[in-house]
Amino acid sequence: QVQPVESGGGLVQAGGSLRLSCAASGGIFSFSVMGWYRQAPGKLRELVATISSGSSTNYADSVKGRFTISRDNAGNTVYLQMSSLKPEDTAVYYCTLRQYGMDYWGKGTQVTVSS
């Protein structure tokens, strides 16, 4: 089993920054796609950003220009650098890792942005 584990969430003021990290527990792995989703109270879970093994990236329109997704050279860890945070970014952020056509999800980390 692959278990992604997120870290880096917390409470920040509007305009501030946070960096989220995600790595798989239980060993060293390489993933074809790594990404982040988020879910705010009363809303559907939505895509934030993804990055492929070829470093192709995809972002939600709401975060373009503010968030940056990246991966380490071995493809073991994915990061989400969040800048110019807004109260509407408040949500639980989930990491997802894809390997051999299977998707693995973390338990989520809370990001709260105060106004």
Structural topology:
Elements: E1 3-7, E2 10-13, E3 18-25, E4 33-39, E5 46-52, E6 57-59, E7 67-71, E8 77-82, E9 91-99, E10 102-105, E11 109-114
Parallel strand pairs: 2-11
Antiparallel strand pairs: 1-3, 3-8, 4-5, 4-9, 5-6, 7-8, 9-10, 9-11
Plain-language structure description:
- By secondary structure, this protein is mainly β.
- It contains no helices and 11 strands.
- It has strands at 3-7, 10-13, 18-25, 33-39, 46-52, 57-59, 67-71, 77-82, 91-99, 102-105, 109-114.
- The strands form 2 sheets. Strands 2, 4, 5, 6, 9, 10 and 11 form a 7-stranded mixed beta sheet that branches. A 4-stranded antiparallel beta sheet has the order 1-3-8-7, with no helix packed on it.
- Strand 7 and strand 8 (77-82) form a beta hairpin.
- It starts with a strand and ends with a strand.
Output mean pLDDT.
Answer: 93
| CA-based shape | globular
Q: Provide the structure class.
A: mainly beta
Oligomeric assembly: single chain
Low-confidence stretches: none
Structural Rg: 13 Å
Number of alpha- plus pi-helical segments: 0
Q: Give the tally of β-strands.
A: 11
Topology pattern, helix = H, strand = E: EEEEEEEEEEE
Largest sheet features: 7 strands, mixed
Strand content: over 45%
Separation, N- and C-terminal Cα atoms: 40 Å
Helix content: under 10%
Task: Give a nutshell description of this structure.
With 115 residues, the protein is mainly β. Helix content is 0%, strand content 56%.
